[in-house]
Amino acid sequence: MDEPKGVMICGHGSRDHRAVAEFAALAETLTKRFDWPVEHGYLEFAQPVIRDGLDKLVAGGARHILAVPGMLFAAGHAKNDIPSVLNTYQATHDGVRIAYGRELGLDSRMVRAAGARVGQALDAAGRNVPVSETLLVVVGRGASDPDANSNVAKITRLLWEGFGFGWAETAYSGVTFPLVEPALEKAAQLGFRRIVVFPYFLFTGILVERIYAATDAVAARHPDIAFLKAPYLNDHPLVVDTFVERVHEILTGANLMNCQMCKYREQILGFEAEVGLAQQSHHHHVEGIGVDGHEHGHHHGHTHHHDHHHGAHGGGSHAHHHPYPHADHPLGPRSLKRG
User: For a tag on the chain, would you pick the N or C end, based on fewer CB atoms within 10 A?
Assistant: First the structure.
């Protein structure tokens, strides 16, 4: 008997109303691509939380839920936090089976979508400067997971070769290094006439704004260089196509996460202490806290102690994760903080 299915899009969440609205709009677009009901939810800072979306699917009759992370790359949220939420839910709901898909990841469609956004910036500025005299800077989110960070660098290389840029660099908005402003300062000294800054982000938010602000700050110090700000990915049709594929591949058996480079499973240079860490969501204390500051209303009943490592993320909201070993790197990971 074929179990009634439902699709669950699991997001991180944001305090930025626009980012939450863009994620919800993408989820709405996906409802038109499936014959099954589609819901979405967030780990933190926004509503509905993931549990709410699962409740809706189950109330509508779904018993086999196909869940995918609404994230570009698999770091702690996709590898640890979301699976923990899903496993907890399944364990307390008899007759419900949740199958978890993989992140958007490195995919030819995602590269083409990224190329389209970079091309938009070049077209808007005019193609009067040769790409051989143009430098590309791709900015990723940044994570305490070198596997995810290295994937951003691969996106950079694919775009670099795809367009034939004279040079390219990779920067990050937080957690790791180099961060945007120091990376752009280094890039500005390489002698290129034009620098394209591309935030490899799904949605807007304060980090994208800070990336653009850092670009403006460096541009003001180097008036002889033209700085172009490319738009982020958002709901590009190829991004939507990739989400659809991630859901379908759960059923076709091609759902493969790159566990060979997972710091929780293998010894990764510099991150050896994290092998075998227990899978536990680190977001229960902010689950459902919306952009207006109101809590969701669920009592979680947790009594265990968290060991906070504020240096790992520059004192940010995820400071309770395992400490990032290069938190004090001189080119990051604190330069995008206010002040």
Answer: C
